[in-house]
Amino acid sequence: MKTKQFKDENLAHFSYAICSNDEIALIDPSRNPQQYYDYAREQGATITAIIETHPHADFVSSHKEIHDKTGATIYVSELLGAEYEHQTFDDGDVIKVGEIHLKAINTPGHSPDSISILAIDELEQARAVYTGDTLFIGDCGRPDLREEAGAITASREELAKQMYHSLRNKLMVLPDEVLVYPAHGSGSLCGKGLSNKSVSTMGEEKQTNWSLQEMEEEQFINELLADQPFIPKYFTYNVSINKRGAVNYSESVASVELREAITCESCANALNPEVVIIDTRPKAVFNAGHLPNAINLMEGAKFETWLGSIIKPTEKYYLVAENETKLRSLIERAAKIGYESLIEQAFVADYKVNENADFDALKLYTNLDDYTLVDIRNETEAKDLMIFENAINIPLHELSERSTEIPTDKPIVVHCAGGYRSPAGRSIIKNNLEGVEVYDLGENINAFINEGACKI
Questions:
Q1: Cα(338)–Cα(247) distance, rounded to whole angstroms?
Q2: What is the pTM of this model?
Q3: How far apart are CA 55 and CA 270, in angstroms?
Q4: Is residue 404 within 8 Å of 255, Cβ to Cβ?
């Protein structure tokens, strides 16, 4: 038995190929299936099974596409209500892959339809458990994503209670030497305290994971519900896509219309003014010239997350990049969350209109009261570290809807935690509020954090 772990760094997502005797079972595959086909070819093996631990909220899975291409059987819990061809896989069900057996364990808590998969080798020894979003390394899955999504909905309190019992009655009873392979690591929004480790053991988790420690049910529920991360706009959308199965990845990406480079001189009649523009170029390039109402969401490690937090799954958007290579890459990244289908058009930018957006951060040291400070970090970030006492905290994912809460009697300075989100925040506020100067503090925020400028 061999386990191959695949990692999507941008979404902190782990997927798996379990190989035994020239057969492979995939668990929670990501949107682009090519890496799994390549691995199967390298191993001289055939993909015979695909298992989904639940309908994921944070990425689109390729389970249906792989089934359509290879004929491999998809296994999911009956509770999922899958709309594609599949076999149910619940407590007590076992499938054979080569010389090993994979056993289903219903582990509701993150979602009502979550399962974990126990791998049992040819000597009938439990070797590994693939825990999906139920048990992470150092944490467990959040219980607040299925209140309005999926075939079965449940309150966060109900799911937190189910999580308490799933962890204790289904997973903690496994031998200490069993390897733990979760669906996510540090950086995922599917939990709040995930480790940066990619594999653990049940014994180590029993000793170090807060969610497996001895505590009463009520205490566990209160702790689990407290301070969970924000929920991006795209999460419910992805649950519905995964429930029915996504369209072919390569065909969908190729169907995005790429226009020739657009200049500001030609843009007035070329684009629909009602459609949001996501301009991914570096801040300095964006500020040197951009289309009206564009949002400067730069290419970065969390591009997918912030794209799906700013753009609703019910709206179209234009995608802009500085060259065709980056444009095609960003279309592929948008496809990881099913947002390639929302792209009205994609094009390379060629703008010549200049805008003075430079801001002298030193002015804040002596003239703090002359500006309205807007902190676009998430609520938990602002709670953990206050940078400016009088800043208005409106998280980036809520900014489009809440910009009118910002006073316009003073120039506005936007900041985040390190300078990646603030260009997007500045451009959103600038687009929504007229007659006021809006500046981006950018990376200068680090000086205020390091030097304790919040006390000024």
A1: 9
A2: 0.93
A3: 39
A4: no
Measured CA to CA, the distance from residue 246 to residue 248 in angstroms comes to: 7
> What is the DSSP annotation of 384-408?
H--S-TT-EE--GGGHHHHGGGS--
- DSSP string across 279-344: E-S-HHHHHTS--TTEEE----TTHHHHHHHHS-TTS-EEEEESSHHHHHHHHHHHHTTTGGGGEE
- Between the alpha carbon of residue 339 and those of residues 40, 275, 283, 333, 349, the distances in Å are 28, 14, 23, 9, 20
**CA 272, CA 284: separation in Å to the nearest integer?**
25
* Cα 329 from Cα 266, distance rounded (Å): 25
Q: Nearest-CA neighbor of 4 among 201, 199, 176?
A: 199
Residue 303, C-beta contacts closer than 8 angstroms, at least 6 positions apart: 10, 280, 297, 330, 333
Is the distance from CB of 60 to CB of 337 less than 8 angstroms? yes
User: To the nearest 5 percent, what fractions of the chain are helix, strand and coil?
Assistant: 35, 25, 45
CA distance 356 to 288: 8
Q: pLDDT tens-digit profile of 271-304? A: 888 999 999 999 988 988 888 889 999 999 999 9
Q: Which two tokens stand for residue 256?
A: 């995005």
d(CA 245, CA 46): 21
In eight-state DSSP terms, residue 206 is: H
In whole angstroms, what is the distance from residue 133 CA to residue 191 CA? 8
**52/89 Cα distance (integer angstroms):** 10
- Separation CA 110–CA 208 (nearest Å): 20
Please give the single-letter amino acid code of residue 179: L
Averaged pLDDT, 61-78 = 98
Antiparallel, parallel or unpaired: β 23-27 and 13-20 = antiparallel
| Angle ∠(230,31,135) on CA atoms, nearest 5 | 50
DSSP 99: T
Sign of CA dihedral 91, 92, 96, 102: positive
335-348 per-position pLDDT tens digit: 999 999 999 999 99
Beta bridge partners, 284, equal none
Place of tokens 């999906």: 132
Residues 115 and 54 sit within 8 Å (Cβ to Cβ): yes
